[in-house]
Design brief:
three-stranded antiparallel β-sheet, 7% strand, mainly alpha
Amino acid sequence: MEFSEKYLNLLKEFEGFFANPYLCPTGHCTIGYGTNLEAHRKFIPFEDLRKSKMVGRSLCEALKKRGMVWDKEQATAAMVEELQGTHNALVQRCSAYNALLAKGEEVRAYALLDMAYNMGVQSLLTFKNTLPKIERGNYEAGAAGMRASKWFRQVGRRSRAVCHMMETGQYPASLK
């Protein structure tokens, strides 16, 4: 799938760029535009660390010690690759996502894609009351369900922007 530049730029703004490994709020070793190195070990350039069971702070410290650094091109490539995998998983497992794509509701589909990129496909699929509303085209009720979630309270401005995308079918004018 080709992702719109507008959405890719928005995702970059949501995630922020980090050239060095860091510990994300959920305690995972991450780099670039939100690439979870524990879930995507192929991006670890050191074979022994890639094969190790090391996670979290210890993995981040080991990678920093060895000088792991990414530029924005590497980060963008990994982000797009992860997005493609997330898209493929949603096509296989999320009928609401497929319904949005079939209706040409690109921005609303990106809202679900963003949630899945941010918290994982399995976590998105736990929105059992919200996803059927979205699938039926009741986007206001879908956005209301998103706002009532723990995800919404945890993610802040990103969740407000994503709910706006679902409710209106338009990108937010600003993330502020």
